Amino acid sequence: MKHIALLLLTVALVACSKSKPEPPPPEEFLTLADVSGRPTLVEDSPDVRVIQVKTKSFIKQNDLRAAKTKAVELATVVAVDEMVRELLPSSTYNENYEKIEDYLSRNINNYVDDQEVVGERRIFMGQYYGISAAFKVNRQKVLVALQKDLKLINTSQNALVAIITNRKNIDLSSAGFTFTDLEEAFLNQIQTDMNQRGLQMMDYRNAITSMQNNEDAVREIATISKDQFMALLSDSNSDGNLLAEQIQLSDEFYESGINVLRQLAKVVIEVNIFAVSGNVQGDLALSLNVTAKNIASDRGGAFANTVINVSRRAGPNSVQSAMIAGLVQDAYQEMQQEFVPQVLKEMSTISIDRDALVAYDLVFRGFDKNDGGRLRRMIQDKEDKSFRYLSFDNSVPSIISIRVRHAGRLEDLADRVMRMMDTNSFKVEEPIIAPDIRDLVFLRNND
Question: Which domains does the chain have, with CATH numbers?
Answer without folding.
Answer: 24-153 (3.10.129), 155-347 (no CATH), 355-447 (3.30.1360)
